[in-house]
Each structure stands twice: as C-alpha cells, then as structure tokens.
Design a protein that fits this description.
- It is a single chain.
- It is globular, with a radius of gyration of 21 Å.
- The strands form four sheets. Strands 2-10-9-8-5-3-4 form a seven-stranded mixed sheet, with helices on both faces. A three-stranded antiparallel sheet has the order 11-14-13, with no helix packed on it. Strands 1-12 form a two-stranded parallel sheet.
- With about 375 residues, the chain is an alpha/beta fold.
- The protein is built from twelve helices and 14 strands.
- The protein folds into two domains: about 240 residues, 3-Layer(aba) Sandwich (Aspartate Aminotransferase, domain 2), CATH 3.40.640; about 110 residues, Aspartate Aminotransferase, domain 1 (Alpha-Beta Complex), CATH 3.90.1150.
- Strand 3, helix 4 and strand 4 form a beta-alpha-beta unit.
- Bound molecules: pyridoxal-5'-phosphate.
- Pyridoxal-5'-phosphate binds next to helix 3.
Length: about 375
C-alpha cells in the first residue's frame, strides 16, 4: 500500500503527475522548452495577473528556500533596507539569509500564535523611512496561521515599499490576487499546493521591480535577474534544469485546472481540514492556534495531556500504517502538525483520524 503524506511538502501526488516524469527529456528539446514557456505563462494567471500586464515568472532550481533566497539576495541593493516580518520558523529563515548575505535589515517579530499586525507594520515603516522592502510569510507553515498579506500590501503600496511574499505553502491552495495584495515578488515551489514533485521554486514578479535587481545578486546560481534573462533570451535555464520535475509540474497544472482551479482545490483542502478538526476534537486533541487565525493548509495539535505520550512512537505507529504526519517546530510548546494539502481527500483524512484513534487506544491500554 502506498504511503499518504499529511505533510507540508513534499506532498502526496497523483499517479499521472509522477508518470509525466517517466520520460528522459533533453534540456534543449523543443518539447521541454515549450513546456517551460507554458508554465511561465500559466503561473501568473493563477495569481490573477499576466505577462501582458507586466508580471514575469522565474523558475529556479532547488527547493522553495532557493527561490526565497534568490529573491532576498537579489532584491536588496546596497542602499536598500529590508523589514522582515516574522512569526515562525520561515520568517526566521529569511532573517538568517539576511545575516549570511550581510543585508541591511530590521526584524519585526510577533508571537508564533499571533498574526502579523498591519498597524504595527505601519508604525515601524513610519518610524524607519529608510526601509525600502518588506518580506512576509503568507501561510506560516510552522503553525498554519495566515498572515494578512492584503492589509500589509496596502500599507507597503501606500508608503512606496517593495513587498516580498513567501506564499510557498499557500499559492495554488488559497486565492491570492497578486495585484490586489500589491505584491512585487511572490515565491512558491513545485511541490506544494500545485501538487507537483520537488525540484524547483518559482517567483512571480512585477517586471519593473525585477528589472531593478540587475547586477545586485550576491551569488551566481541564485541571481534572480540573470535567471530570468536566460529564460527570456533562449527559453532555457542557465544551468541543468530539473527536467523531469518540470514535466510533472505541467501535468500537475493541468490537473489543477481539471479539478476546477484554485477555488475547487481550496474547497477540497477546507473539507479535509473540517474532517480533521472534527475527528481530532472527538479524540480529545487540542489545536495550538485560535480558530480565527488558523488557515486550512496545515494544522498544529498540542501533544495530548498525558505524560506517557511519545511523539516518536506515535509517528512510527502511524507511518507503519502508511500515514506520514509532521513533527512540530514550535519554540515554546510541544505540538505536531497535520497537512491538509496534496492528493488527499476527506476519506483519507477520516482514515488517518481512525488510525490515530486506534493508536491512542492501544497506548492507553498499554500504560494501564
Ligand atoms: C515549504 C516552505 C518553504 C520552503 O521550504 P523548502 O524545504 O526549501 O522547500 C518556505 N516557506 C514556507 C512558508 C514553506 O511552507
């Protein structure tokens, strides 16, 4: 039996997506170059913008972090200053990038169980007019909360700041209007809500903002402008492309469309989450976040109030039954996470919840 991944990436993918990666593909093959072009044209449309309207798409080899680092290390020029909004591990990852690349930056932190407060962002930007760029995580996968990117984007637009959004775990599973949220750089990857296989990140960028990054990169391989320039001039990646992952991704995009686009996918993920919420509540599990700020991508559950609970054993028992969940990453409390995304359906979530119930019962019987 195949394993089902209830993780935030890589995700469970369809057989047909994996099958699309079965044929060797030369990187200069016309079929491959056409596929890259199709993907670059179709991605911004998912965010309600297009190339004609001045938005460009850059594909970057590597995992999602490579895409974020490419944007962070290419957009902040010598005289720029980045404000990093952080309320979880992924915000902190951007802070680390700033340190490594020695980028002028300021960090505005919020508690892990609180969303980024737009009013605080405004105050910070008004106090520090030298700030030129703002970076924010949309779906903070650490906990599963959604930060209010539209409200923050509106403030950035009003004050003339470049807005960078890590929408890694949300793009494709949540409606995002890139223009309405005033986003200049949005980053996501092949193996999240579009449901492709791992291999590359993508950046959807306002062309005007992208052109300004020319010559600013801190590394050769993650140079956002040059990567775009290469794709524009001959349709090719500068270095070996993730050919098979690209072929699988185009199939994944077709399947997203067949499902009914982002609204239908979002509805399925929400149904998964509802099924999970109800089932876990019935088993006595408590969620880490308040329901108002909990998104539908991934849910954090506190360890049960039972000293004999051991996450490792729990994880292994579930994995033995072919259900893969995710450990927690919280700084102040113990929690584990269950993803609602990927090729999983409410009946799969019900089966997971049932397995959790059986494992908990067995444990309770053993500890008596
Ligand atoms: C998955 C994810 C990333 C990228 O992680 P990789 O392991 O590099 O793919 C970045 N930000 C968020 C919010 C994510 O969920």
């Amino acid at each position: 039996m195949k394993k089902l991944l209830f993780t935030p990436g890589p995700l469970t993918t369809s057989h047909s997506v994996k099958a699309a990666a079965m044929e060797d593909m030369g990187s200069r093959d016309a079929a491959f170059v056409t596929t890259v072009k199709e993907i670059r044209e179709a991605l911004p449309v998912l965010g309600h913008v297009s190339k004609e309207e001045g938005y460009e798409t850059v594909l970057m080899q590597g995992s999602g972090t490579f895409g974020v680092e490419s944007v962070i290390s290419s957009t902040i020029g010598e005289n720029d200053h980045l404000l990093v909004l952080s309320n979880g591990a992924y915000g902190e990852r951007i802070v680390k990038m700033c340190a490594i690349h020695k980028l002028p930056h300021t960090v505005l932190r919020f508690e892990e169980d609180e969303i980024t407060d737009p009013a605080a962002v405004r105050r910070q930007l008004e106090q520090a007019p030298h700030i030129t760029h703002v970076a924010c995580i949309h779906s903070e996968t650490t906990t599963g909360l959604f930060n209010p990117i539209e409200a923050i984007g509106a403030i950035c637009a009003e004050l003339g700041k470049t807005f960078i959004v890590d929408a890694m775990s949300s793009f494709g599973g949540v409606e995002i209007d890139i223009r309405k949220a005033h986003i200049q750089f949005l980053v996501s990857s092949s193996n999240k809500c579009i449901e492709g296989i791992p291999g590359f990140a993508f950046v959807i960028a306002e062309k005007v903002a992208l052109l300004k990054t020319k010559g600013q990169a801190r590394s050769l391989s993650l140079d956002l402008y040059e990567q775009w320039n290469g794709l524009e001039t001959n349709g090719q990646f500068r270095f070996t492309p993730p050919t098979l992952s690209i072929m699988a991704f185009r199939q994944a995009m077709r399947e997203l469309e067949e499902e009914g686009g982002i609204p239908a996918r979002e509805a399925r993920y929400r149904k998964n989450k509802e099924t999970l919420d109800k089932g876990m509540e019935a088993l006595g599990f408590v969620q880490y976040l308040r329901p108002e700020i909990q998104g539908h991508i991934i849910t954090s559950f506190l360890y049960p109030n039972d000293p004999s609970f051991q996450f490792e054993a729990f994880y292994q028992a579930l994995s033995d039954r072919n259900f893969v969940i995710y450990p927690g990453k919280l700084s102040k409390t113990n929690a584990f996470r269950i993803g609602n995304i990927g090729q999983i359906f409410p009946e799969d979530v019900s089966a997971l919840v049932q397995a959790i119930g059986e494992i908990m019962q067995k444990e309770a019987a053993l500890s008596k």
